[in-house]
């Protein structure tokens, strides 16, 4: 059984306590940290290496720029954004987009590809993965 490591970084405190109560006594989920100030989130994720970070959606229901920064720096981490006002939640994760391109196997093309000078001409179809 894989253990999900969770960092709680959501506000307000009452919402954080409700999330804690919801996942209490779950053998496959462990809280690795709690933050009262989301400005510390990048450092905490780097240090604690959680699988999941629970944050609060802003009042408009949009993801904060901080979520995109977090996924950019820690693409293995998934984000659960919760809004008590809107009674909604959003899951966010990063995924890899694969590309391929046919080329003649010449020395010039091989060296060009290794130097990043080859143009990719198509993107492979992706298979969405909600969870790893």
What topology emerges from the helices and strands here?
Layout: E1 4-8, H1 13-23, E2 29-34, H2 41-48, E3 52-56, H3 65-73, E4 78-83, E5 88-92, E6 99-100, H4 107-114, E7 122-123
Parallel strand pairs: 1-2, 1-3, 3-4
Antiparallel strand pairs: 4-5, 6-7
Q: Which percent bin holds the helix content?
A: 25-40%
Largest sheet: 5 strands, mixed
Low-confidence stretches: 127-132
Strand percentage, roughly? 15-25%
Q: In angstroms, what is the radius of gyration?
A: 20 Å
- Give a count of the beta strands, DSSP E runs of length 2 or more: 7
N-to-C order of helices and strands = EHEHEHEEEHE
Task: Work out the oligomeric state of the chains in this entry.
Answer: single chain
Q: Which architecture name of the largest domain does CATH use?
A: 3-Layer(aba) Sandwich
Backbone structural class:
alpha/beta
Number of domains: 2
Q: Order of strands across the biggest sheet?
A: 2-1-3-4-5
CATH C-level category of the largest domain: Alpha Beta
| CATH superfamily annotation of the largest domain | Response regulator
Chain-averaged pLDDT: 79
Tally of contiguous helical segments: 4
Shape: elongated
Distance between the termini: 14 Å
CATH fold name of the largest domain, please?
Answer: Rossmann fold
């Amino acid at each position: 059984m894989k253990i999900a490591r969770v960092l709680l970084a959501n506000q307000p405190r009452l919402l954080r306590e409700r999330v804690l109560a919801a996942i209490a006594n779950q053998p496959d989920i462990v809280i690795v940290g709690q933050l009262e100030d989301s400005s510390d989130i990048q450092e905490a994720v780097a240090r604690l290496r959680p699988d999941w970070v629970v944050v609060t959606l802003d009042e408009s229901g949009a993801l904060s720029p901080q979520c995109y920064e977090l996924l950019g720096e820690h693409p293995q981490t998934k984000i659960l954004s919760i809004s008590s006002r809107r009674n909604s939640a959003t899951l966010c994760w990063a995924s890899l987009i694969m590309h391929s391109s046919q080329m003649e196997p010449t020395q010039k093309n091989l060296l060009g590809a290794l130097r990043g000078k080859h143009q990719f001409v198509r993107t492979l179809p992706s298979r969405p993965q909600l969870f790893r």
